Amino acid sequence: MAKGESVAGTDIPPGGFVQLLTPDGERIDSVTAADGTTYSVDFTDEEYRELYRDLVTVRRLDTEAVALQRQGELGIWASLLGQEAAQVGSGRALRPQDMAFPTYREHGVLYCRGIDPIMPFGLFRGVDQGGWDANEFKFNQYTIVIGSQTLHATGYAMGVTMDGKTGSADGEAVIAYFGDGATSQGEVNEAFVWSGVFNSPIVFFCQNNQYAISEPLERQTRVPLYQRAGGYGFPGIRVDGNDVLATFAVTRAALDNARNGQGPTLIEAYTYRMGAHTSSDDPTRYRISSEVESWKAKDPISRLRAFLSKQKIAKKDFFAEVDETANKKALDLRERVLAMPDPEPVTLFDHVYPNGSPELDAQRDAFTRYQASFEGSGH
Amino acid sequence: MITLGKALNHGLRRAMEDDPKVVIMGEDVGKLGGVFRITDALQKDFGENRVIDTPLAEAGIVGTAVGLAIRGFRPVCEIQFDGFVFPAYNQIVAQVAKMHYRSKGKLRLPITIRIPFGGGIGAVEHHSESPEAYFAHTAGLKVVTCSNPADAYTMIQQAIASDDPVIFFEPKRRYWEKGEVDLDAPLSGAFPLHSARVARPGSDATLLAYGPMVRVALDAASAAAEDGRELEVIDLRSLSPIDYPVLFESVRRTGRAVVVHEAPGNVGLGAEIAARITEECFYSLEAPVLRVTGYDIPYPAARVEEEYLPDLDRVLDAVDRSFGW
To answer: Dehydrogenase E1 component domain: from which residue to which, for each copy (chain A) (predicted)?
Structure first.
């Protein structure tokens, strides 16, 4: 796949990928893919610096979350370590009117949508199940059951078409996030079928982080994931998921195609999960340290930093300031997470049905009376 | 006089006229009008964007309905037969039922999922099942069923108008039964969706039935009346929630209750109803609450389904047992 393949020493997967920034921080002006599409970015210096700030910030917040989990303040955490470029690149390519459907690891996309980073912590701390307003932020609930959200995104995209919001440069587009493991799910297959058949304005963004908990990519597929798209009648493209510039360029192009009425695209962001699947598993049981080390050399942040330095877009004091600001945000987040109150017990019964239910009302009343019976009894 | 199937068709049409956000989706619902013709002519009149012939994928039908609902539409999904709902089960139980709760009330999914259910039409396997207990067990769903054309007409409109996700079971063996329907009656004056109805008043025992078994219970009550027993027949209509006050009032008055359903008895709705009546009406009962249900087997082959389905004789036998206590 064009220039990406010619870069030496980068372990490019067979079939290549779109890359605009090498692991050493060398900039590739543009890449023309096999279908003739040319990918490039045209950022100002300030925009480059802000992208770097995003990457550092989401990593720093994630690091804080991992620490909070280890300290017993979160029940579980799904770390994005290593996937910052895939998430920030795609997240920053979204326009305000676009709708995103995440899995449970898209903290970086959530951050790019302008949502208070504390929002997912209710879910992982166990004080709620993630109650932000999907329509307000154009970012749906986290979805735990693998692949289910791809169908929700597909239906939403059908609705965009039915509302007449496609077919122009300012149309709406939808993006559905999922991982390599999800591609084995029947529902993801159905989402591909539907989107192809209805030519829906959707981008399927697969973060291939190489493992579904412990199972390697070879347990999910015999062919590169992006190649599956052809069978459903829409284009598939693979991008270096550790390259924030290429990820941005490829996602922006796919979203624009969608909003212009040209239908779906499957993007395979080729990346690596540096940490555990969640804080509950032990990756040393299923992968070797040399593999992890080789991916460390492709780190999304260090390569952008190298580029910014070489191009004199940013200097040491900028990097120090970014680190310091991210640190402050993380410490602020920590304080707020620790201060998250447990919900009032009686709220158990809230929001089961929009207009309530007589049976549940009776159970709530009984629960309230039972709770009240302990008052003053020392319980 | 129109059939129950035609009443549903009229109800769907009126819901689509009343609210441009109502869309119908399913396999063969468009040109064919559905395999039971319940959506007959709707695509012709409302277009392909509002009556959507979908790919053959049940999870997709319900999963995309979730996205459409988030977008502000009011989808009505048709599952072609009861036994085909299970590929969509994950979407219904894990997503449709829980999203309002998970989002702390921020999202509403006003989705209606229509499922023709039950046996008695001589169909092959997977076409005659009664999966209502699976859905009634799931918080966040409302589960209803109709037993006559008049209810079919109003209840389908109420289900679509409701902000709750509603599983709407249609008694397929009753699709061709006729009844009076006032097509001009305003929905606002209709009997509430989640209410049970006394289908036949009586004083000696209470028969509790829903969907296709209401007809069987009414026939049993007519036969019992010839022997001098006045059976009250209650059509549950709503299976989740169940309108218990109506049940309790009746059983306290008659002192005897027999629950009738086609689904297997084990962990079925009859067990729940019997338990609740026992808890609430213990001192009024003259006999244990009895159940007449399908057997605990997979739905059998068509040539022996009459042995499986509760019929008038089995219901009367249970009534006799109740009186013999």
So the answer is: 56-343
